[in-house]
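ok trying this again, last paste got cut off
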Amino acid sequence: MDVSLILSNILNPPVLFFFLGMTAIFVKSDLEVPPPIPKLFSLYLLFAIGFKGGVELAKSGLSQDVVLTLLAAIVMACFVPVYTFFILKLRLDPYNAAAIAATYGSISAVTFITASSFLQQLGIDYDGYMVAALALMESPAIIVGLILVNLYTSDEVEREFSWSEVLREAFLNGSVFLLVGSLLIGVLTGEHGWQVLSPFTQDMFYGVLTFFLLDMGLVAARRIKDLEKTGAFLISFAILIPIVNAAIGLLIARVIGMPKGDALLFSVLCASASYIAVPAAMRLTVPEANPSFYISTALAVTFPFNIIVGIPLYLYGINLLWS
């Protein structure tokens, strides 16, 4: 693999600020970001990327390529939690196996945004409708994970299970709602809407992303201690499964003829793991699962792995397959 790709990715300002956040925790600095600010920046990033995706979707329309890409996204969001559940069940109880499988079936919007930044740095184009794929992959894993819990746990355990609450959390949680809503507004307003909002949605974007990743570095470093509870099996899982999922994603992308930029974003979506929407849903509906397992593996292992090594590695695979 071309080492310069990794260096190029690491020397990206948002990634360097992620390391700065981690370093602050390791050297016991008193650096901290007041709690409302990361929430505000998270909402801004979802709004900006959703709106841009909607504008791009309005330009491209629902062509055959768009439909195939969106179908592939839904298939992967359902397939990943099923096959990873059976791997995890070899060492874990069904509650923890389902919660972790759902986490890895869903996606990380911040990893997607970092990959977009990486592509722009290299001058590789990608289609805006990939944001629609991002939105579609957020929720199905939650539903699949809960179905697995119902199928593989004992009936002797009396569960207070409300499907309406589960579906509400899967499709109407704040992150999904804002992302999908921004996407639809982008579709409705098109280029005119983009011109009106571009100083806010474009010029500020990378500054906000950089500051957000500084906070993510602080949070990830604090979660590293939790890895002592997960053991070597889960740490290995958190590194190997993203590579496997990215490889499956790349093969699908090659078969349906995605261009390189779209293929990288699709593989990153397949390889990433949720640390916001799915953990929130699992804590609500599967309290038997240990949050230290599914949050620390996704946030302290898979997320840094993807933004440091994974993204350049997946692009290397694309260059091999597409050559």
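PB: full thing came through this time. DSSP finds 15 helices and no strands in the chain.
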